[in-house]
């Protein structure tokens, strides 16, 4: 079937109605056949979480030439797993997550549902890319990101990605992008992560918040540096999390 | 405070009432002061997922000499984050997740709430270990694992772990353990992941299931090989997921 157009599976974690996924679909449609399986509501911060304690459900939202859209009651990683076994008639050529409303650089990769989509695609052996914009605004402006999204997706379709490797792409919130930087994950820690409040006399309620303390300040090879300086940050990301450098040392312990 | 006993934070993803966490607490108590902050119900397969859309709540369950137990309405990673800012009076010396009822070897590390505990501890700069047993039985037998849990925890307290590195320890479901193997993460894929059923005439309901296809069969350095051959599998695991090997290649793309 050499004349088939590339098959592109799209999902996200902000949910099917988010502007970011609509924009992503618009940017990707010229590149191939797009199938969307996205959460029916926001599932931010769910990482690679799966739904194990209850069944999930999907349904068709819209079918157009070259575009089919489904919504699903599961998490982002569930959406990818379910699409592979239900709505896709062949293995996709590309899995894309996003465009996320919010930064998924640095250690956020571990919590990101957008990257949950991408890690799942990568684990299934398909070249996979996550796109995120450093703005949580529902009406964020994705215009400048568009040509980069399309170029990066086209390059990955042409060249592929190494086994067990995916891309985490973050855009600064500006319309004047300076180009692309290839980065490593910034080291750092979230601090002051909880906002405490009382409810009906019980003061043990906490809402997640926090600020990120960068431990790699001024390191020009990090994704944070790229974003702070107006560049598109592309961080190649592995799903083989073995700490190979520690294997020999650890063998001496036993 | 050189005479303080080590402070050990414990959590899991099977929830506070699981046998595995009770056994873990029992094994660890001789090593130091144990504080438990565990989910109030099972949160299996939640990976590093955070609770972002609603507040979480914690409460004291039990206080004894050298042991304080709290339950929390959040996910495993929430539990660790919350404990650091609420119930711990100093930075812990060790964060431990488990003992999980079920295998967290191979690519399961990405979905594991047990490893969500461990990754969170590691991101906070504390030596962290996850323990899992290859049995989902509520009444699984953790007896043989006990001495290994204690020895591994003691070694990590003594020697520490490199920055950004934690341990993923899995036990085969046997009482005749052959010793320890230091491993890498087995490559492979989950397949046949969904069980379809109909509900009220709608046949788009799916429940997660699946079988793992090992792509590293007979590779003696993998965690699957160790488990299949009766060894305790210790896989050193990194939270820096940058695919360093692809950076130079990727730079040639742009």
UniProtKB/TrEMBL annotation, chains A, B:
Repressor keyword on record: no
InterPro entries: SurE (IPR030048), SurE-like_Pase/nucleotidase (IPR002828), SurE-like_sf (IPR036523)
Protein known as: 5'-nucleotidase SurE
Residues of the signal peptide: none
Keyword Cytoplasm: yes
Cell location: Cytoplasm
Chief place of localization: cytoplasm
Superkingdom of the source species: Bacteria
Role according to the record: Nucleotidase that shows phosphatase activity on nucleoside 5'-monophosphates.
Record field: catalytic activity: a ribonucleoside 5'-phosphate + H2O = a ribonucleoside + phosphate
Family to which the UniProt record says this protein belongs: Belongs to the SurE nucleotidase family.
Co-factor remark: Binds 1 divalent metal cation per subunit.
Residue stretches making up the Survival protein SurE-like phosphatase/nucleotidase domain: 8-191
Cofactor: a divalent metal cation
Keywords, in A-Z order: Cytoplasm, Hydrolase, Metal-binding, Nucleotide-binding
Binding site for a divalent metal cation: 13-14, 44, 100
EC number: 3.1.3.5
GO cellular component term, pick one: cytoplasm
Enzyme type, top EC level: hydrolase
Gene transcribed to yield this protein: surE
Entry-linked NCBIfam families: PRK00346.2-2, surE
Any one GO molecular function term: 3'-nucleotidase activity
């Amino acid at each position: 079937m050499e004349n088939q157009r590339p098959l592109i599976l799209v999902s996200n974690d902000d949910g099917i109605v988010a502007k970011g996924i609509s924009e992503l679909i618009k940017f990707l449609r010229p590149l191939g056949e797009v199938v969307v399986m996205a959460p029916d509501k926001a599932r931010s911060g769910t990482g690679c979480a799966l739904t194990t304690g209850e069944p999930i459900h999907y349904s068709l939202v819209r079918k157009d030439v070259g575009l089919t859209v489904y919504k699903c009651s599961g998490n982002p990683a569930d959406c990818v797993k379910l699409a592979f076994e239900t709505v896709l008639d062949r293995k996709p050529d590309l899995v894309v997550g996003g465009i996320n409303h919010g930064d998924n650089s640095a250690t956020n990769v571990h919590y990101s549902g957008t990257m949950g989509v991408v890690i799942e695609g990568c684990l299934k052996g398909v070249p996979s890319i996550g796109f995120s914009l450093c703005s949580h605004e529902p009406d964020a402006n994705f215009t400048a990101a568009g040509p980069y999204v399309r170029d990066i997706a086209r390059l990955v379709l042409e060249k592929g990605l190494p086994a067990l490797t995916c891309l985490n792409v973050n855009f600064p919130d500006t319309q004047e992008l300076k180009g692309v930087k290839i980065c490593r994950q910034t080291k750092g820690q979230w601090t002051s992560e909880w906002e405490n409040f009382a409810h009906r006399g019980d003061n043990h309620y906490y809402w997640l918040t926090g600020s990120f303390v960068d431990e790699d300040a001024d390191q020009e090879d990090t994704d944070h540096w790229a974003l702070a300086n107006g560049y598109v940050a592309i961080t190649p990301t592995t799903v083989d999390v073995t700490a190979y450098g520690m294997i020999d040392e650890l063998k001496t312990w036993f």
